[in-house]
Write a structure and sequence with these properties.
Two copies of one chain form a homodimer. Chain A is about 40% helix and about 20% strand. Chain A is an alpha+beta fold and about 240 residues long. The structure holds a DNA duplex (30 and 30 nucleotides).
Chain lengths: ~240, ~240
DNA sequence: CGTTCTGTTGAATACCTTCAATTCGCGTGG
DNA sequence: CCACGCGAATTGAAGGTATTCAACAGAACG
């Protein structure tokens, strides 16, 4: 776990001793470069392989993680083995921050969806930085607030009765985000199924039915939205 | 909205010019009494009647609320009219704090379940106090962290397949909280149904089945837990 | 004492799940 | 370069559970 190093390939400015992803992370917006450098110094780069477990539910949280590159899922596992994904996170996004700040255990599991590089930031060092610059605390407040909103949306979607509705809501969400009618899923379909609270079979059937109805076209991981109005009214329940 | 007053019946100490509930609110733990007094000064007491709407989704958030007495639900409403309760809050608990701090709109609706008295705290005043005492900000962080954990539990319960499982999980939660085998529901059964993501009919049937299985006994709003082991294994999925 | 809201029960329906079998995609190794 | 093999995705059939709608009973409240 002490494989500390400074990747060269991601430095755009010779004066910066930290990667671009760190600078763009929402958590660190508005922070002086000096502090970013400090964070980079107290952190350790962690390389994880696809499907590798990063932490498990119940484990004591001693640090927060920030994704430098790759993709990570945070999820709950029921005793029957069914998983419900809470977050899918990409470069620049932090995770494990809630229990870390509260000094508690992780409420869920985290696992890499792809080979990834993570910045592992021990809390003691981060708390010291918090005292130096209160804006870091406010950024953390904003982050938690954003997470709460995401959860509200997730809960809303999970309580929509039918799988096609949840799927339509999710696709429209992606459409808003990328502003494109052609959506390229950045996750496996089974992963998507777990995220919208369905089985892979149910997802497959939902896509097929929506295809038949002319709402969209599926080609592997690429989905063409054909009828936004129809999708929208479907998401809202007819 | 300017019905400011100082309720007499809740003052236990003549030197304090604010109610006991304010002192006990988790949000204000560790704050000097002077600041509590300030909060009480900038706030307004709001009386709401049962079923009265407090705020609606999409409304601009300018303040946060703290329940002095009574009961409030925070919920999402789908276009079909189905409601999903996010929180049920009692005396001393704040709500509306997330969008208020982020300067955004409310992501959900709030409505009084009982005649209630709320303390309405405009954000501008509260932010001023935050700058005076950073511990208020950390309390807010702790509050948001706790909310996130509640949501994780709610999501977990919603994705547990069967209604009886969700119900068992909720009842065991109440049992932990009150440490009693006799549980008196402080909410209507229909409200409970909306909270665990079910229809009143489904809840009724689930209770009946669990009654038949000897897990519990129902008498109006009073529920006797008869088989904790059985309930526990049910909640975990057999 | 009656009106209204809440809770219960029944029957029909719709949807998802489960399990099993098959196909597809893709990387590995021959 | 092709064949193999593994995991992911799809499809089918059977079964279970919640939903919906409607009617009724019960409790709360004025």
């Amino acid at each position: 776990m002490n494989n500390f190093h400074q990747p060269q390939h991601i430095m755009s400015d010779h004066k910066q001793f930290f990667p671009e992803q760190l600078k763009q992370a929402a958590l660190f917006q508005g922070l002086p470069l000096r502090q970013l450098s400090d964070i980079w110094t107290i952190g350790q780069v962690l390389k994880v392989k696809r499907n590798q477990t990063i932490f498990v539910q119940g484990e004591q949280a001693k640090a927060l993680y920030i994704i430098l590159n790759g993709q990570v899922k945070v999820f709950k596992l029921s005793l029957e083995g069914k998983e419900q994904i809470l977050h899918i996170l990409g470069p620049g996004e932090p995770f494990g921050e809630v229990p870390a700040f509260a000094g508690q255990t992780f409420p869920a599991h985290a696992q890499a969806l792809q080979d990834s590089e993570l910045l592992y930031i021990p809390m003691d060092g981060l708390l010291t930085l918090c005292k130096k610059d209160p804006s870091l605390v406010f950024n953390m407040l904003a982050l938690l607030a954003a997470r709460l909103r995401q959860f509200v949306t997730l809960i809303e979607n999970l309580t929509l009765k039918a799988v096609p509705q949840r799927l339509a809501a999710y696709l429209l969400h992606l459409h808003d985000k990328h502003d494109s009618l052609t959506i390229d899923l950045d996750i496996a379909k089974g992963t998507l199924a777990s995220f919208i609270g369905a089985t892979p079979e149910a997802l497959s059937r939902a896509l097929k039915r929506m295809n038949r109805q002319g709402l969209l076209k599926v080609n592997g991981r690429t989905i063409q939205l054909c009828d936004l109005t129809g999708l929208s009214s479907l998401a809202k329940g007819e």
